[in-house]
Specification:
By secondary structure, the chain is α/β, with parallel strands linked by helices. It is built from 11 helices and 12 strands. The longest helix is centred in the first third of the chain and has 13 residues. The chain is globular.
Length: 244
């Protein structure tokens, strides 16, 4: 059982990656896609054998607390802010912090995941960098959906709102309505994914051998090239960087 993020699932990566792993190993992986915070909680409870998530500080704490054996970097993509193409709040550009400062004083709507996911954690870090500790108080159009990346994008598309998304889910999202990418290219928007085998010293029932087989494969040249080969409309969604 692999506890992972909604972005890896909803972007279509796992439908591409897991059959390739099964072909080489004979091991079937069952994915439970949640926000990263919930995925880590699943690992703490011993309800998953392996985690594939994207909140490096939380992942390192998970390992330091003895719940995971080792965190290995796997791949990255980046976050973008999308919104109405007419950009009524006037945030278009590269600087994510300036964009959020501008948004906070506008009458625009902003949809937040609000689900303790890696994307939600990153969004809150950016608001904090903009000097805003509680965006829900600072911005009257701020709405928290407590949902995955796909549903959050659907809400934003139907309400012509701004939101932060990982680029992978955006590229595979079909229902864009009038939304387009407005903020991209800030190095702070970098989004790293890691893999962690749950520690059988905490939960003896963990399928360590099978989980380790996946962790080793996904950072191997075969796993890394499988990730690089996944494209939507000719555009690569995730960039392997295990060996860097």
């Amino acid at each position: 059982v692999m506890s992972s993020t909604t972005s890896t699932e909803q972007s279509g990566l796992f439908a591409h990656l897991l059959p390739a792993f099964k072909k080489t190993s004979g091991i079937e992986v069952r994915v439970v896609a949640l926000g990263t915070g919930q995925a880590l909680d699943m690992g703490r409870r011993g309800d998953a054998d392996i985690l594939f998530v994207h909140d490096q500080a939380a992942e390192e704490k998970f390992v330091a607390d003895g719940f995971g054996i080792e965190r290995k970097p796997v791949m990255y993509n980046d976050f973008v802010i999308v919104g109405p193409k007419s950009d009524p709040a006037g945030i278009k550009g590269k600087d994510v912090v300036e964009a959020l400062k501008t948004l906070s004083t506008s009458n625009a709507a902003f949809i937040s995941r609000g689900d303790k996911s890696g994307t939600h954690a990153a969004e809150l870090r950016f608001w904090k960098a903009a000097g805003i500790d509680n965006p829900a108080e600072a911005m009257k159009g701020y709405k928290s959906c407590g949902c995955g990346m796909g549903p959050a994008l659907n809400i934003a598309a139907s309400s012509n709102a701004y939101l932060m998304t990982d680029r992978g889910t955006w590229l595979s999202f079909k229902n864009r309505a009038d939304l387009g990418i407005l903020v991209e290219g800030d190095k702070r928007l970098f989004n790293q994914y890691g893999v962690i085998v749950v520690n059988p010293a905490k939960h003896p029932h963990v399928k360590k051998a099978e989980a380790q087989a996946f962790a080793d494969w996904v950072v191997s040249p075969a796993g890394q090239s499988t990730i690089a080969a996944y494209k939507v409309n000719g555009e690569q969604l995730f960039f392997p960087n295990a060996q860097k």
